[in-house]
Amino acid sequence: MIVRRVLSAGLAAVLTVVSTGACGGQAAERPAGKDAAPAAATPSAALGASAPPGEPLDGPPLAVTDPWVRSTESGMTAAFGTLVNNTDVDMTVVSGSSPVSRKVELHEVADSGGKPVMRPKKGGFVIPARGTHQLQPGGDHIMLMGVKKEVRPGAQIDFTLTLQGGETLEFTAVGKEFAGGQEDYRPDAQVTP
């Protein structure tokens, strides 16, 4: 079971249970096996936003669905999934961490002279109110740099994402094999409009 938690630093310590190498250029596949299905989400209080009086939110304030990590022995890898915002305000993920990596960055893939390059995403990931933000090979993703231990298929990898304002989202992603594209990592790459 994949567990997701949202901690709201600004709300009376409410704890809510909610539910790359290189990165790829192909559509993400769902991990196979018994861990493939996302965990059921538990309704919860919103992070600074609320539903109209008498009407519950559609789900947890913020969740990650179908999270997975590309397996690797060492070096770099990435995590993918879909960020889901069930509140009436935009949310922005500004940083991340994982116990299996020395450094975690929020990345995007951009075109640099006809070649895809990955680089840190300025401003983080914005999840629109009542919307989603896709993390996928060849696009935005959570980059693990300096992986400290092997990520094997089926492994359970913990993550913490920090939102603008200090709230955090904790989730567990499943390791899986993936042979995607090979973008270059160029933090200062100039992109082609």
UniProtKB/TrEMBL annotation:
Low complexity compositional bias, start-end: 27-52
Q: Where is this region: Disordered?
A: 25-67
Look up keyword Lyase and say if it applies: no
- Keyword Signal part of the UniProt annotation: yes
Q: What is this protein called?
A: Copper chaperone PCu(A)C
- SUPFAM superfamilies assigned: DR1885-like metal-binding protein
Protein origin, superkingdom: Bacteria
Q: Which residues form the signal peptide?
A: 1-22
Q: Which organism is it from?
A: Streptosporangium carneum
Key words of the record: Signal
Q: Which InterPro entries match?
A: LpqE-like (IPR007410), Lxx211020-like (IPR058248), PCuAC_sf (IPR036182)
